[in-house]
Amino acid sequence: MQEISGITDYLCNRVDKTKHKKIIVSVTSDLVSDNRVHKVCTTLHNMGFDVMLVGRKLPASLPVEIRQYAVKRFSLLFHKGPQFYAAFNFRLFIFLLFSKFDILLSNDLDTLPANFIASKVKNKPLVYDSHEYFTEVPELINRPRVKKIWEWLEKKMVPSIKFAFTVCNSIAKIYEEKYGTPFKVVRNIPVAAEITLKTEKDDKAEKIILYQGAVNIGRGLEQAILVMHYVENAKLIIAGDGDIKTKLEILVKKENLERKVEFTGRLSLGELAKLTPQADLGLSIEEDLGLNYRFALPNKLFDYIQAQVPVLITNLPEMAAIVNHYQIGEITESLEPQFLAGKITDALNNQEKRKVCKDNLSLAARELTWENEEKVVKEIFERFFVRKQITNIQNANG
Fold first, then answer.
1. Burial class (CB in 10 A: 0-12, 13-18, 19+), 96
2. Residues 289 and 207 in one domain
3. Which of 157, 219, 310, 325 is most exposed by smallest CB count within 10 Å?
4. Tens-digit pLDDT string for the chain (398 aa)
5. Residue 49 lies in a domain
6. Residue 76 belongs to a domain with what CATH number?
7. Rounded to two decimals, what is the model's pTM?
8. Does residue 26 contact residue 105 with C-beta atoms inside 8 Å?
9. In whole angstroms, what is the distance from residue 301 CA to residue 237 CA?
10. DSSP string of 110-177?
11. How many CA atoms lie within 13 Å of 27's alpha carbon, on the beta-carbon side?
12. In angstroms, how far is the first alpha carbon of the chain from the final one?
């Protein structure tokens, strides 16, 4: 009898998982280069969920590569500012209202209003992934009225959320203390299998200094460009797009640095995975512009590590903790161009230091993988399977 009960339990579990509960995941990005969201969606798909990712399509957006899960992008009249956020959330809410789903996953505060209301209207669970300390981003620091609106929205919604995660311990602690909502931590760590390591090149070959990610204020990019006046036999590659890209291109021309600075624009995940291992040094030199940057733990840092590229970072606590723990690069106390140039030159040419970094990067790359990090995502979402399974078993047992 016990054996029959065990078989019944097993079959209930198997049947339940094959029902493919549907999750609609939403984010305001155009999806092409949003690595964190892609990794989470892939993990959810592999768990047995039916995943649909919803984002937006810009006039210059690249096609989304074929993925294991469904993708939908909204074309909107507005592309930035209050009109964009209002239009996106209205469009998203209407879409969710007329869609069938079991769970919602909202990425960042700018998608939360539509998800929050839809989850209440349809009585479905909502999971929140905060990619950053949204109300402390540099774009809001000098805009107190706009900042207050986002803070008001956050205060109205986040205390009611039961399932949430974010990118680092510092931000998780802030949210928990501020709103009483427990946040788990899922860092922006890459999938190990997606990285192809480079072959070593000649020491005399031109070195590549790489910045990858959003081309926005506070990323140290103006300083990195000016540094190239003082760094020999090297090229700075800025891989990404953002609000200040045009401004930076003008700066490069003004400084006559066209031969030493290259802009790739936004790259697909596959293109980025090929470029990163070619770098000799990876930059993550965010400025301390508010709490969001102070506690930054960006995915580019982990991408550099996985590609076994030594790093140069600013002395911000979450990043510094990783670099100090593994001894995989340099930490700069200043972004003054000549001082920074000295740090970069040493990081590129001090072969003894580079050998230590390379040895340590091998260990860090084995430990800091999405295969390890995704366990937290599975822990959060497995409960939605388990609840259904318990109901099935209870019904089977009368």
1. buried
2. yes
3. 325
4. 444 444 444 444 444 444 579 999 999 998 888 889 999 999 999 999 999 999 999 888 888 888 999 999 999 888 888 899 999 999 999 999 999 999 999 999 999 999 999 999 999 999 999 999 999 888 888 889 999 999 999 999 999 999 999 999 999 999 999 999 999 999 989 888 655 666 566 667 899 999 999 999 999 999 999 999 999 999 999 999 998 999 999 999 999 999 999 999 988 888 998 999 999 999 999 999 888 889 989 889 999 999 999 999 999 999 999 999 999 999 999 999 999 999 999 999 999 999 999 999 999 999 999 999 999 999 999 998 755 444 444 444 44
5. yes
6. 3.40.50.2000
7. 0.80
8. yes
9. 16
10. GGHHHHHHHHHHTT--EEEEESS-GGGSHHHHT-HHHHHHHHHHHHHHGGG-SEEEESSHHHHHHHHH
11. 20
12. 15
Question: Are 58 and 140 part of one and the same domain?
Answer: yes
What type of residue sits at position 103? I
Residue 341 falls inside a structural domain: yes
Answer for the pair 293, 286: CB distance below 8 angstroms, yes or no: yes
Residue 249 shares a structural domain with residue 330:
yes
User: For the chain, how many residues are written?
Assistant: 398
CA distance 250 to 19: 54
Between the alpha carbon of residue 146 and those of residues 18, 85, 114, 205, the distances in Å are: 45, 12, 19, 48
